[in-house]
Amino acid sequence: MKKIILILQLISIVAFSKFSFFTTNYIENLENGLQINLSYAFGNWQKSYILKGDGPGRALNPAESGFYIFEKIPPYLNFEILFQNNNFVLYTNIPFSKETTVKIKDPFLNFSFTSFDMNGPENFLLGYLKKDLFIGIGRYPIKWGDSKYPITISDTTFQDNLTISKKFENFTYTYHFISSFPLLTKEEKHIQENYYEKHTPNLYFFEPFKTIVAHRFEFFLDDFRIAIGELNVVGGKAPDLIDLNPLMFFHNTYGEGYSNVLSSVDFSYSFKNLKIFGEFALDDYITPTETEDYKPNAYGYNLGIEFNLDNFNIWFEYDFTSEWMYITNYLPYLRINVRHFYLDNNNSPGRALADFPLGFRYGPDATMVSMGGNYKIENLKISFTYNFLVKGTVNDDGKIRWKWFWDAWNENVSPQGIKIEKSTDLMYNIIDLLVVYNFFKFNIFKVNDNILFIFSTEVKI
Predict the structure, then answer these.
(1) CA distance 427 to 381
(2) Using one digit for the tens of pLDDT, what is the confidence trace for 42-85?
(3) What is the pLDDT of residues 184-243, one digit of tens each?
(4) How is the beta sheet containing 51-52 ordered, strand by strand?
């Protein structure tokens, strides 16, 4: 499973900025085959589902519900299928696994007689790949910038997307069309149908669409790279040519009531074995003609440094998202995140609407200091990551939980939305140690008092 994710990340993430992997020789390293994975874990793991709403589905926070532990539990069987003809590539994987939601509470074995995941595959690509051109449609992670935890678009989860990226001599242009699952809880559906944006009185947008259109202009000047990007969340109506225009400034499309725009800039500078990188993203800014009772300031940023040698690297990073980052719009379709649907006929929640960040891994109202490193020698690989996370919380009718994409600013709509009160910040020490030797893997994952020791093997047939 790790190989599959790495392959797609190399194709769709690394190459977007460098294009160094868009070669026929690299694609030929992929292969058809079957993987058999055995995974066993033990330790103190006491996590529960963080849910909100009801109706045709229940909203789920996959971060607070287990800190994405399901990423670490491989499928017990995995088919990889690859077809290639010149620059055209078709790749998919067919995993046999426990349900994603079941892994949150039960990560101890990767096999179960009562849980079978019917929601896959989570990685596939139909693409045209050249050294200076990428055109791909499918389901795979994408990422902007060089930071480990991007603010604007991160590889926290896969995206159902169409991507076009073209490299010129010192410039790269990238365009994404991303779809988010449009099903709403009963409460969200009521808001979307009965509330309107204050700038568009009595104009309602509630068709079942949520689309994210993004573009990025990236410039390379010797060892310095800088990129300017924009994304436009279009919700409650089908996107039209105004929304999809690849060269238009999305801010100037003025899609009031059905659009939410975020802008970003990121950079990196390399000097010998050292790289400095950072990112700033702006969701909303109060201009002199506006008041804070309409929308608050909302932004996020990070800054990091990385040191690389032939078989070793170490890095440090600081990340921050303000209280209302990603959630300055009360209408559910206009919050800056992506939703995946997980169906499970045998376990609860049977219809989970998992709200993943499009950007920072831990969503709005978060501060994180991180460090990590990697070491490789022959068949041995060791990686280590430490995060100190300070996360904002809310008091949701007596329940203290993380501030998430359900807790949006309530004053930009009419009638005025319901405000959920802020509560005390929570602090987390997150340790992740992974040792890989040949086809054996050992992973220690610790979040405060919760700790898991995960052993797994991978056999290829």
Answers:
(1) 30
(2) 999 988 899 999 999 999 999 999 999 999 999 999 888 888 88
(3) 999 999 999 999 999 899 999 999 999 999 999 999 999 999 999 999 999 999 999 888
(4) 51-52, 58-60, 351-357, 337-343
